[in-house]
Specification:
Heat Shock Protein 90; Rossmann fold; five-stranded mixed β-sheet; 12 strands; elongated
Amino acid sequence: MKKILIVEDNDTVRNNLVDILQINKYETISAENGLEGFQQALEKLPDLILSDIMMPVMDGYELLKKVRESSPINFTPFIFLSAKSTYKDVRYGMNLSADDYLSKPFSVAELVNAIESNLAKSKKMDAKIDQLKDSIAFSIPHELRTPLAAILGFTGLLKDIIQSSADINDMMLMADNIYDSGIRLNNVINKFILYSESSYVLLDSSMIKKYNDSEIESVEAYVRPAAIKTCSRLGRSTDLKIDFMDFQVKMDFRHLVYIVEELIENACKYSQTESEIKILLRRENDFWTFSVTDHGIGMDAHQIKSIGTLNQFDRKINEVAGNGLGLSTLKKIIEIYSGELIITSEPQSYTTVTLRFPIK
């Protein structure tokens, strides 16, 4: 049974709509204004939203804007029901990405047809998303990973064999380069896969709910080893400083580990060896935060604003391996959990990256 959210400030009209839709075998949710409607939409994840335009507290236009900016519900079909029926009104609503517009008064048949039509469009979109999940964007990375695993495995064996030889310097150098390249390629592929998965999760409200319902009993049990491992891999073990509180969070453990590894890897890359890298884990009121501070090249205001694109900062000046995909993936993970990315920095001084998540 499809779930319809009705947002209407007139009690009589709202109750009539509830009766009509229930008779036509729809499950209904109702709200008296846009703010209440937005809260209901986030909580109940309706299949379609019917909304009046002129309402107190928050009008229909503002409600639509909020819906389109919120990842769990941003693709939900949205139909305006209003006595405002001028071309200008309709055009304005459509420019805000409304899916349909019914002028009051309308018949039951017109209402039901509009709902069915827009639900059908939404179903086609879901089918296209499912098709994309099986497309080349997913198959190619996995195809690359299979031979890469063999390359890494045999190179590791080769290094062990070379170490037992008398004259090993040149061969060992080549083996190290091969192995390091393999590790780098493997990391890129893993980031690409996680980026693709996160992109599709954000199109599927049920998947977003699934990840938000995942539980980690001890956040420190994942954060501490991931931080130590990353710093060790990059030769920065002695630079790591840890300040932790331990608590439970709602998040998929793979996403938590990725967040830690990505932020610490960037801190290591953009700061000098023997400069401190501090990680902080805190729970305060209704939020928990994870932050990483380094004392490296820093960023200016323009660079901070550009975070999340596939561009790397000052690439011509700072030849650091990477393509920006890691930060873009990080932003999508943050969006899945309705989190916030906060960056404070001063060029040639420090950078602090803080992720802030609601406790659910």
